[in-house]
Structures are given as structure tokens and as C-alpha cells.
Model the fold of this input.
Amino acid sequence: MPKIISIHSFRPGTGKSQLTANIATILAAAGQRVAIIDSDVSSPSIQAIFGVADSAMTHSLNDFLWGKCGIEATAVELNPSIRHALKGQLYLVPFATRNSTIDYDIRLLSDSFELLINTLGLDVLLIDTQPGVQFAALPSIAFSDIQLLVLQLREQDLQGTGVVIDISEQLGIDEMVLVVNQIPEHYNLREVQQKIEQIYQRPVLAALPYAELLAEYQPATDTNAHIFVVDHPDHPISLLLTNVAATLTA
Done:
């Protein structure tokens, strides 16, 4: 069965969008049909990570929600931007603010997920959410099968992640997993993983060490994507993310 996975964090700057892009690429490289909805309306970045030009995005999810186009018109194929051929298919559905408020029937958002899955024949729909617990983030979380929470070892993250888990439980999300990102090198990764699992009583799929090589990755300046797992497939972080992707879709 197709899966809808929201990737969320309590605050901006946790590396959520980079993880979303890499997990999506791993799944598509393995032969799955994957789409990413960039619903981080405060700071959309998936387009930049994959080097998608504005001219390539004729419609956004907003246009569908406002009745301006069919859902199939919102999807941009990302395969051409990847430096290595993918066995599957990878799409991006941008969510643009366009100088207007986000005003639509929430039920249409749920419909859009189902229509995307059916129209594109998707195996996985990933939603890169708006950080925090603002209204714009909640519908994407509520309609997910799985929620992946990304956090760093900062006090704000540690407190805020607990808040997100409480709200997600109220929204009826039963399956929540975590990834701890950019862990300083002097920490024991296994101990961090065990401690976070103890705090939140949720599985930690990966405790990712800080890697300068990954931190230096910037949005693409051309039409070629800069995807860490493509450029460095044997790096320990790439191997950990491959396990995360496999677990999310098992």
C-alpha cells in the first residue's frame, strides 16, 4: 500500500529538508515512485536543493486547492536533475504562498494526497512540513500514515519535540519515529539514540553525527541536484539514511 510520510521538526534549521530530499532520492533510486510535497510555506527549499528552475514549475499545490488546475499539473519530474539514473520516479509538488494567505478547504488537501498517489501511481508521498505547531503544518501531519520527527540536541528541540508528539497523538497519529541530526562528534551515538528513545518512548531510526561534508551542501546553483547520498553513496550517513528509508517503507 502507498504510504504518506510527513517529515517534521519543531523549529527551522534542523536539516529536515535535506533529509527529506535524500530519503526521497534513496527510495526512487531503489525503484519506487516517490513524490515530495514542499509544504514548508515559511521557507520552501526542496526546489532549490534539486535545482528546479522557476520556469519548470507552472503550477503549485495551491493552484489545485484553489481550483485552478488538475493535480497532475502540479508535479515536476525530478529525475532529469539527478546526476545518476534512478530506477524509479521522483516528483516535486511545490506549495507556493504567492503573496496571499493560505485559504482553502482542508478536505481538499486530503483529496490532493489521494489524487497524487493515484494519478502518479506513487508508492510513497513525502511531505516536507512547515516547522513548529502552526496551523499550516497540522493538516499535513494529520493526514500522514507515519510522522518522522527531526531534532538536534538543543534544549529548544528537546522541549518542542515533546509538544509536537503530544499534538500528533491528539491528531490520531499512532506511528511516530525520530531522527537525531547533526550530533556533535564528542557524543556517543548509541547512547544518544537510547536516551532519546527513553525520553519520548518512540523509536529513533538514526542518530546522525555532524559531518562537515554534509553541512557544506548548498542549494543547487544550476539544474543539477546536489544530493548527498548520490555524491557520497558509501558515506556512513548515506548508509544510515538508506536504513531509515527502508524502515519507513517496510
